[in-house]
Design brief:
Elements: H1 7-36, E1 50-54, H2 65-76, E2 82-85, H3 95-105, E3 109-113, H4 119-132, E4 136-140, H5 153-156, E5 160-162, H6 166-178, E6 189-190, E7 192-193, E8 196-197, H7 222-228, E9 230-233, H8 246-260, E10 264-269, H9 276-289, E11 294-299, H10 307-316, E12 318-322, H11 329-344, E13 348-350
Parallel strand pairs: 1-2, 1-3, 3-4, 4-5, 9-10, 10-11, 11-12, 12-13
Antiparallel strand pairs: 5-6, 7-8
Helix pairs in contact: 1-10, 1-11, 2-6, 3-4, 8-9, 9-10
């Protein structure tokens, strides 16, 4: 296993990829909302039966962003999946050790995340899992986008291959298992069988409005933005008072927009009273309101939000976080993690 990359190098790489990742995240969130609107909630032991396994390539030490979305989608759909990251195992871990780990977990449904660099290892491992651990095994990820023509179900040793947008088809596959339907009948899912493979059927395109590009944030000057931004406080009464609700803040923004045409805001929380739940509620309501505003979060603490929360804030219009300077090593580490998550969502972190 390779040693973890330096944080500065990793952050520089993420900053270069930030626009592409942010656009991808907005697309995933739109598709998530579309899928989960008609989702059937799992019941009984099936909700706890899902285990996703990340088999990392030799040159990568972090699970990909898409795999984090898989977990979030499954949780929103009512599942309680567990992630087994092979990168966290010792360098001496073998296929047998990983199979024993999965066997101890006693999971009925196991999914292997496959990319082109780890395809051979994942397919080799799938044969072992099918024999002793998984009652239903599926492979998913970008490494299966072009399955070899000569591959057979015996070589793949999986009940299903999930091809196409995995953030959609994985949940759809589990929905079919919960309803005891044939996974091969699902669009975007390719299942090997005794008589060969069913043809790949891509999902129907989204509505035209859903395919419209989301607004970008590269067409404005941040310095000019700060000069005309309207400050709004999450908690004007200080730490002893109760923070204002997300619905009230969104209503205030709508009022300023309709009356005065103000589309630039700075949200202040110097007392550090706004937790992740309130930020998540605020981002969700603001994105649903579709006000096309841009805002900066001026927070009095260094949060460690999930990747999903960071992308929801970016989707709602957040382009910058201002965090206090770290006072010790713990705060410095928290700030570094917040910078990584923010960079993936296309949000700049400052402590000026």
């Amino acid at each position: 296993m390779t040693s973890p990359r330096e944080p500065r190098e990793r952050l520089r790489e993420l900053q270069q990829q930030a626009p592409e990742i942010a656009a991808r995240a907005r697309e995933l969130l739109r598709r998530q909302d579309e899928l989960l609107s008609g989702c059937v909630r799992p019941s009984g032991p099936l909700a706890d039966a899902v285990l996703l396994v990340h088999v990392p390539p030799a040159d990568r030490d972090l699970p990909p962003l898409e795999l984090a979305y898989e977990l979030e989608f499954l949780r929103h759909a009512g599942y309680r999946p567990r992630l087994l990251d092979a990168a966290a195992l010792t360098p001496a871990a073998t296929d047998e050790a990983l199979a024993e780990e999965i066997d101890r977990a006693e999971k009925a449904i196991v999914g292997l995340y496959v990319v082109s660099e780890n395809r051979a290892a994942a397919i080799r491992l799938s044969g072992r899992l099918k024999k002793n651990a998984a009652r239903f095994l599926f492979l998913f990820g970008p490494g299966l986008a072009e399955p070899p023509a000569a591959a057979t179900s015996a070589e793949i040793a999986a009940d299903a291959l999930v091809i196409g947008p995995p953030e959609i088809t994985v949940v759809a596959l589990l929905e079919a298992i919960a309803a005891r339907r044939d996974p091969a009948a699902l669009p975007g899912v390719l299942c090997p069988g005794a008589t060969g493979r069913t043809p790949y059927r891509p999902r129907p395109p989204l509505a035209e409005a859903d395919q419209m590009p989301a607004p970008t944030y590269e067409d404005f000057d941040p310095a000019a933005y700060r000069a005309r931004a309207l400050p709004l406080a999450f908690n004007p009464g200080g730490a002893a008072a109760r923070p204002r609700s997300a619905a009230r803040l969104v209503a205030e923004m709508r009022d300023h927009l309709t009356r005065w045409g103000v589309r630039h805001f700075v949200f202040l929380d110097a007392a550090g009273t706004v937790d992740h739940r309130r930020l998540d509620e605020f981002a969700t309501l603001l994105a649903a309101a579709d006000l096309a505003v841009r805002f900066r979060l001026d927070l009095g603490y260094a949060p460690e939000p999930s990747r999903l929360l960071a992308h929801r804030l970016a989707r709602a219009g957040c382009f910058e976080w201002r965090l206090p300077r770290p006072a010790d090593e713990i705060q410095r580490a928290a700030l570094a993690r917040a910078c990584l998550v923010a960079a993936e969502a296309g949000i700049t972190v400052t402590n000026d």
